[in-house]
Specification:
transmembrane helix; 427 residues; single chain; 3 domains; five-stranded antiparallel β-sheet; transmembrane; elongated; membrane
């Protein structure tokens, strides 16, 4: 989808807007592609509302030839046009950092050009992003819009040794090959490329500059499904089911969790996104059966359960009736304030939900004389989730879709119970 940003009657240019996390005060990638045709109406309204706010606040949105989005704020139309032309000139310089050959060896200073180097062209174009790891290894990413998946190929030392009859694990946003190791890339056109890390230099570890030397080979044939990866909205994001079907044990490196940042180093990862392909792929008969069984279970639960016993408290906890009748107005007001502060838009990351969970836990801790079970449960849940996400960040990986859903459900359930607390009518 192309957007036009006119300013004072003048059309600056067309800007392709790509999938990403959008924050008015922190923009490095932008939303919206034709792949979002399955978005709900409310989600489209949210997108356009934020984009309109950007335009009204004077942001110029620019996409270079390599597919990267930039945004800058200017005070006047002439200033915008001048800055836009400057940016285009920089983009041309940026895009010369490429090798159109199908094979070769490259020396690249990865501290420049956002760490991105281009190999190939047209349908065979690959934008490879690097960042520093150590003197013996380097991070590579699937961040660029030309890239679909990446996979680390182990136990081989040259391109001729690669087995093209197995599927490689492409479920991670980043890989950290060591010198001598090979990485397989799949681009948006279904083409494949191989790079082998030949040498790494790190400026702050005694070298003159940051530099990676790598050899590459772009495969001529269009191989079917060499990489098993995550289904995504676009090249920058992934997080859905993790499938290991037919994966060779020698190339599956444990239960990896997908990292979800935007052009950031792993140590600073905090952005996550979710795709929703699972139910769309199910046959209609199976989907109808699942819905029927789910509704039946819910109905059995409702008619077989004494609803009066669970008026208050998440996770099945309920304070005694005499305590419910004595809830002070200030506690009800506090519960309403916290419930109203939890605004779920569909673009939350785990950090957002941890923040919400912290507010919820603090509420029950302050009022544990009334809600002892909830206070203990949410305190434990908060500590467990904080530890879990810390381990994920330290390992440079991300969170499974199923775990994310559990965290999301926990917050949604707690929000509902807070609303019930806030609406109880005291005698």
């Amino acid at each position: 989808m192309n957007l036009v940003f006119p300013t004072e009657g003048e059309v600056i240019d067309f800007f392709t807007v790509h999938t990403g996390y959008l924050d008015v005060h922190r923009i490095s990638e932008l939303l919206v592609t034709h792949q979002h045709a399955n978005l709900q109406e409310s989600e489209w309204k949210h997108i356009y509302k934020v984009l309109h706010k950007l335009k009204s606040e004077g942001y110029l949105l620019v996409q270079n030839e390599g597919g990267d989005i930039y945004s800058e704020k200017f005070s006047s139309t002439p200033d915008r046009i001048e800055k836009f032309n400057e940016r285009k000139a920089k983009d041309k310089e940026f895009y010369t950092n490429k090798n159109k050959n199908r094979a070769g060896t490259v020396n690249f200073d990865y501290s420049n050009n956002n760490g991105i180097y281009f190999i190939g062209d047209a349908d065979y174009l690959f934008g490879i992003k690097f960042s520093s790891a150590s003197q013996d290894s380097i991070h590579v990413y699937n961040d660029h819009t030309t890239i679909d998946y990446i996979a680390l190929i182990k136990n081989v030392t040259n391109f001729d040794q690669i087995n093209f009859n197995i599927k490689y694990d492409g479920t991670s946003r980043s890989r950290s090959p060591e010198v001598g190791q090979i990485v397989l890339f799949k681009n948006k056109n279904g083409r494949y490329a191989l790079i082998k890390i030949e040498d790494i230099k790190v400026e702050n570890r005694g070298d003159k500059n940051d530099e990676v030397t790598f050899s590459f080979k772009i495969l001529d044939d269009k191989y079917p499904d060499l990489i098993v990866g995550e289904e995504r909205f676009s090249g920058n994001f992934s997080l859905s089911k993790k499938s290991k079907t037919d994966l060779d044990d020698s190339v599956v490196s444990g239960d990896k969790i997908i990292a979800m940042g935007i052009a950031q180093d792993p140590a600073r990862e905090s952005w996550y996104k979710i795709s929703w392909p699972i139910f769309r792929k199910l046959p209609k008969k199976i989907l109808v059966s699942i819905i029927f069984v789910s509704i039946s279970i819910i109905l059995l639960f409702v008619f077989d359960f004494n609803l009066d016993s669970v008026q208050i408290g998440p996770l099945g906890f309920a304070p005694p009736k005499e305590q419910i009748e004595e809830i002070p107005k200030n506690i009800q007001g506090e519960a309403k304030l916290i419930a109203d502060s939890i605004v779920i838009t569909g673009w939350e990351d785990p950090g957002d939900y941890i923040g919400y969970l912290s507010q919820i836990s603090s509420f029950y801790q302050r009022h544990q004389d009334i809600y002892p079970a909830e206070a203990a449960t949410y305190k434990r849940q908060l500590v467990e989730w904080q530890d879990k996400l810390q381990r994920i960040n330290n390992s440079g990986s991300t969170i499974y879709n199923s775990d994310f859903r559990v965290l999301e459900g926990l917050v949604n359930s707690a929000q509902s119970q807070l609303r019930k607390i806030s609406t109880i009518i005291n005698p």
